[in-house]
């Protein structure tokens, strides 16, 4: 950093060189409105602002870190998978419906908007998959991390009579993405409601 700032998950700094200041930001750094929205939606993330001159290193539980360059678009990401963002990027929340519920993350997800970089976390090296109108994509809710672009998503169930007899594939629920954009998935699955069916 050269006098600029980043917003990062509280406690994610592991080392720094140079002159840095660290300040906890209330309600995810988006003021009173952001704090109220996050409390209502349950998409809560404690954020700190890091300013200074030098190099700051961030990490979280030895997770892989993936940089996403945003050019005026929106990144939809689970709060637990967001490590840090350029300070110019705005964060908020978005309704996810059944997708979030199937992941066990609630009905809302974090949005990051504007121009700059965001660092997202994955359990293992993230796989970035392109979705086009000709190639829709189905993703296990436990492997989903984030997405960008003009994507529509809906929840689909593979639950049938065979599932209840114990002969199902084990992939009871999926998120289907259609449109044009990128989806980030991890080569590992969180425990989800679908995993219990």
CATH level 3 topology:
Double-stranded beta-helix
User: What percentage of amino acids are in beta strands?
Assistant: over 45%
Q: Which structural class fits the helix and strand makeup? A: mainly beta
CATH top level is Alpha Beta
Task: Please bin the fraction of helical residues.
Answer: 10-25%
Give me the strand/helix succession.
EEHEEEEHEEEEHE
Which radius of gyration do the C-alpha atoms yield? 18 Å
Terminal CA distance: 47 Å
CATH architecture: 4-Layer Sandwich
Principal-axes shape call? elongated
Low-confidence stretches: 35-43, 99-106, 159-165, 193-197
Domain tally: 1
Average of the residue pLDDT scores: 80
Largest beta-sheet details: 11 strands, antiparallel
Q: With helices defined by DSSP (H or I, 4 residues minimum), what is the helix count?
A: 3
Number of strands: 11
CATH evolutionary superfamily: Mitochondrial biogenesis AIM24
Brief account:
The protein has 197 residues and is mainly beta. The protein has helices at residues 31-41, 98-103, 161-164; strands at 2-9, 13-25, 47-58, 64-77, 82-86, 90-95, 108-122, 127-131, 137-139, 144-157, 173-185.
